[in-house]
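I had to read the description of the data format several times before I understood it. The format is easy to grasp once an entry is in front of the reader. For illustration, here is how one protein appears when written out as sequence plus structure tokens:
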Amino acid sequence: MNEVKISINKKNVQYLRDWFSNYVKTFKHGDKNFQENIILKEKHTMQVCKEILNIGEQIELNNDELHLSEVIALFHDIGRFEQYAHYKTFVDRKSENHAELGVKILEENRVLNRFDESMQSLILRTISYHNRASLPEEETDTCLLYTKLLRDADKLDIWRVVTDYYHQKNGRRNVALELDLPDTPEFSEKVYQDLINMRIVDIKHVKNLNDFKLLQMGWIFDINFDPTFRCIKSRHYMEMIGDVLPKSYDIQKIINVIQLYLYKHSKEKVG
């Protein structure tokens, strides 16, 4: 695959922001719970746009590259709205892959037709990879760069969403955020083994809410850029998830492994 010449101006970015806003408005109806989850995903998208620009500026992307980063972030979860409207869940395995659904929506609505085919392909491929368990092996360096940027920015904001939720004072549960998992006191041995060995947790091993919280902590092993590590450390996301897990020797061992990994990767580079 040939590398793509990145060229996106501010006017095109604004047009796509407006398209996104108008598209999301079509889902703002129905009961309070439904609208809350639509707004949750809309806010998530806006925050991922901010996160990706923050990381991009720190790794010194140019203006065109920053514009492309924002467009990819803007549309990375476009499939979530149709998914929730149709299936009333954000669980891909109970509905359909939201990244692939998003690509389909962008293609059907010809949203990216302002760009040449190579740029359209780059944007759609990056979106399609953002929720995979691992990065694709055969891809261009350009596509992998933007995929890594998106995955880092996405995780940063999901950590914001879930830590806010776990520490809310009103105690209201949102089963959509909990992926319909039971809130039982144990955790899975396979999840423990994944994390102790510094592996991303296999979603098949997740049986309850504790497993899901541990999986979220384990995303630390899939972070790509120094600025992301520094954000995780300064915002105390790992501690905030750790605080809502059961107090046990094995959980503490996992937390220690994760904190050591974060410490090693979040130190400021000198020179």
In short: The chain has a mean pLDDT of 93.
